Amino acid sequence: DQQVKQNSPSLSVQEGRISILNCDYTNSMFDYFLWYKKYPAEGPTFLISISSIKDKNEDGRFTVFLNKSAKHLSLHIVPSQPGDSAVYFCAATGLDTDKLIFGTGTRLQVFP
Amino acid sequence: DTGVSQDPRHKITKRGQNVTFRCDPISEHNRLYWYRQTLGQGPEFLTYFQNEAQLEKSRLLSDRFSAERPKGSFSTLEIQRTEQGDSAMYLCASSLDGVDYTFGSGTRLTVV
Questions:
Q1: Cβ of A100 and B98 within 8 Å?
Q2: Does any CB of chain A come closer than 8 Å to the CB of residue B106?
Q3: Interface of A with B in 23-62 (CB under 8 A)
Q4: CB contact under 8 A, A43 and B103
Q5: Cβ separation of A41 and B108 shorter than 8 Å?
Q6: CA-based, 20 to 30 A from B69: which of A104, B32, B77, B90?
Q7: Is the pLDDT of residue B58 over 70?
């Protein structure tokens, strides 16, 4: 079963506008969530994370929001830049494990 | 330290052959992970080590797969009697006690 879901396989946004990438999870034992960015032929690069004790974490242009009751998190990128074009993966982990469970990714394209 | 290093970057092999991949983690990281990523999917956990001890293995890791980390530094992942379904990107990551989880660039395996 897919414990971490990214239901939008792709997203296209104009440069300067906001990009919103969504992620849903099913396992209530998850307590730490991460977003990774991936370019072709490279490994995933860590972007931002959030602990379940928080509902928001911000780092520059990137903000992650966590809604525990809805088991939903989102990544906001503002303003979006062409260099942000990549595949974004949401991942989750829990207290009882060290492994990351990834979603299937969302391909973001930022056009001029 | 240049991060997590994986070798080779690409491997093409004939079905039935054995292949071995190497991963050199960030030197101070005590945990090392192997993931596999196929087209259109997120990375899937295979196994992880804390120092030289292999602590968890996924059901994805059939008996044709074996991983070692003999001295708690670099790790190898061997696939015996490769099948076309083994074609994927094999990703290695390392962390210090689960923090600063960093991925390598991966080894792309093509079984023909």
A1: no
A2: yes
A3: 34, 36, 41-46
A4: yes
A5: yes
A6: A104
A7: yes
Pairing state between β A56-59 and A62-67: antiparallel
Q: Within the 28-87 window of chain B, which residues sit less than 8 Å (CB to CB) from chain A? A: 31, 33, 35, 40-45, 48, 50, 55-56
Answer yes or no: do A99 and B45 touch at CB < 8 A: yes
**Two tokens at A36?**
């990774």
Residue for token digits 């087209």?
Answer: B39
Could you read off the pLDDT of A76-97 as tens digits, one per residue?
999 999 999 999 999 999 877 7
Q: Mind spelling out the 3-state secondary structure of B11-72?
A: EEECCCCCEEEEEECCCCCCEEEEEEECCCCCCEEEEEEECCEEEEECCCCCCCEEEECCCC
Q: How confident is the model at residue B1 (pLDDT cuts 50, 70, 90)?
A: low
Please give the interface size between A and B, counted as residue pairs whose CB atoms are below 8 Å apart.
55
Per-residue pLDDT tens digits for A12-70: 999 999 999 999 999 999 999 999 999 988 899 999 999 999 999 999 999 999 999 99
Residue type, A32: Y
Rounded-to-integer distance, Cα A25 and Cα A4, Å: 4
Q: CA quadruple B30, B36, B39, B42: dihedral positive or negative?
A: negative
